[in-house]
Amino acid sequence: MKTSQTISEKLLGTYIDPFTDFGFKKIFGSEESKPLLMSFLNDLLPLDEPIVHLEFKNIEKLGMLEEDRKAIFDIYCHDKKGNQFIVELQRAKLSNMSYDNRHEYEISLKRYRDFFNVLDAAKKEGIELGENNQAIKIALNMLKNKVDINLIVEVTELTKTEILKL
């Protein structure tokens, strides 16, 4: 049996609600939509420099009931000067949560943020260690070739004391 549609149903068609997790991801959450999302974020956020690159990260925590459902959709952004930052989009009906549930949610969110902060710090530390190891390698090569120590200091940014210990 075929159901009849009213004229208004035929004219309205199907729309996606961008304020739902599904809708936002459907509109903005693909590689093809990155330019649209960058434009949207550059217009929406008070940025000193525009976003020139972004990556999607998706972590979700879903409850059993609609009022318990929470979602986090992170966008890792890089601006024109190379600064990196996270845009975090959340959907949670905090007004429907009990004090304990809201507290649990906030702790979960804090742990999530702390985890990524630790990863970022470890990454920076690893990069610095790698750069230092590279400077030492260059200094050793320059010492082997009897290059003046002042030039080695200038090139590697190591101190004289560090170079003399090599």
How many helices? The count is 6
The side-by-side strand order for the widest beta sheet comes to: 1-2-3
Distance between the termini: 86 Å
Structural class: alpha+beta
Query: Strand tally, please?
Result: 3
Low-confidence stretches: 61-69
In what range is the share of β-strand residues? 15-25%
As an assembly, this protein is single chain
Radius of gyration from CA coordinates: 26 Å
Biggest sheet features: 3 strands, antiparallel
| Share of helix, binned | 40-55%
Q: How many domains make up the coordinates? A: 2
Shape: elongated
Q: Give the overall pLDDT as a whole number.
A: 79
> What is the chain-wise order of helices and strands?
HHHEEEHHH
Give a structural overview.
With 166 residues, the protein is of the alpha+beta class. It folds into two domains: 1-97, no CATH class; 98-166, no CATH class. Helix content is 51%, strand content 18%. It has helices at residues 7-12, 21-28, 34-44, 99-144, 149-156, 160-164; strands at 51-61, 70-79, 84-92. Strand 1 (51-61) and strand 2 form a beta hairpin. The longest helix has 46 residues, at 99-144.
List the defining traits of the structure above:
single chain, 166 residues, alpha+beta, 2 domains, three-stranded antiparallel β-sheet
Helix and strand arrangement:
Blueprint: H1 7-12, H2 21-28, H3 34-44, E1 51-61, E2 70-79, E3 84-92, H4 99-144, H5 149-156, H6 160-164
Helix pairs in contact: 4-5
